[in-house]
Amino acid sequence: MLRYAVLLVLVFLQISMAWADLRLDSLLSTGARAKNIQMIELALTQGADVNTTDEIGRTPLIWASFHGHCPLIGLLLERGAAVEERDTMGSTGLMWAALAGRVGAADLLLDEGANAQALDDTGVSAAEWASQEGQLALSDVLRASGAK
Questions:
Q1: What's the sign of the alpha-carbon dihedral 83, 85, 90, 93?
Q2: What DSSP string describes 12-29?
Q3: Model's pTM, two decimal places?
Q4: What is the pLDDT of residues 30-49, one digit of tens each?
Q5: Contacts of 95 by beta carbon, 8 Å cutoff, 6+ apart
Q6: pLDDT single digits (tens) 41-79
Q7: CA–CA distance, 83 with 73 (Å, rounded to integer)
């Protein structure tokens, strides 16, 4: 009987820890979408996965890149965010920064090794995303970095 009680406690603890991890990851994703660096720092300090994805496969780094939030991008990269992580459409943070015309974010990601030649699932590069949105200066920067 004692063995079963111990097993139940262990199962409960594992479920509780998994639930806590999910909540921290959700806090991290929410903080990134809201551009709330304090929320991000809290979640990371408590052990959230820096590369967690939300319901559409976007990481906190992808959201920070889209918003052009360079201090947040720096924090996430410092904490181990994967610069080439992709969302459900195969798009990287660099592609989202290009779409939104976030030159500073794109420069930071390129400095950290983002692949300017990468293509999304439809075969479109970050430079093409930028061109399609009228972000011609950013498109030129990306093409100079090797994008097609």
A1: negative
A2: HHHHHHHHHHHHHHHHHH
A3: 0.81
A4: 888 888 888 888 888 888 89
A5: 118, 120, 124, 125, 126, 129
A6: 888 888 889 998 888 899 999 999 999 999 999 999 999
A7: 10
Q: Which ranges of 37-125 does DSSP label H, i.e. alpha helix? A: 37-45, 60-67, 70-78, 93-100, 103-111
Which residues face 125 on adjacent strands? 119
Contact 83, 62 (CB under 8 A): no
Q: Can you tell me the distance from the alpha carbon of 145 to that of 56, in angstroms, rounded to the nearest whole number?
A: 28
β partners of residue 119:
125
* Virtual torsion, Cα 123, 127, 131, 136, nearest 10 deg: -170
Query: What domains, with CATH codes, occur in the chain?
Result: 2-144 (1.25.40.20)
